[in-house]
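Quick start: read one record
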Amino acid sequence: MPERVELTGVPAFPERAYFAAPSALSSLLVQQGVDTSPGAVSKQLQLPQQEAQLEQNIQAQVNANGLLVYPLQPHLADLLKQVAAGYPVLLRFNEGLSWIDMPLYAVLIGYDRENQTLLLRAGNSRRWETNFSSFESSWASSGAWAVLVLAPLQLPAEVDSQRWLQAADELQRAGHIAAAANARQILQRRSGVAAQK
């Protein structure tokens, strides 16, 4: 894994409304070629009425655009592997103090292992920097939720077959049958190549 990575091509939409979820999700949707904005995403997520179902609605909106939501394990090393592979990570962390829960959605776009720092598109900041230990604590206190938003032919680094197939099933339930079939097929091809080695 490289010592330092920054995914500079990830779009930035500085905004804090609704825990910055619409701006963070917009960044990843636009990167995948979806024509959208934080305002449009807010409406699709049914905010503010549906704040309690925000993560389920994020899943639904990603799938509605023919993309997969691939959940990551709650370990910082897993997030760094994905960023090193070129995939920004959508996540939720607690921006507040330990006694006040202030969740914020952000996009992890880089890291520096030597300096133990991370770079995020978070709230109004295009390049918010934090250290590994502060992030891990605030991420864990907010449930350590992190996902990738991927096209059906983009396998994550060190893909977990079961999680990938579940993501494909969700995509199929959203009506994208051909896209879900492509996701299963790319995994099968990768597994077949790995088995032949």
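The chain has a mean pLDDT of 91.
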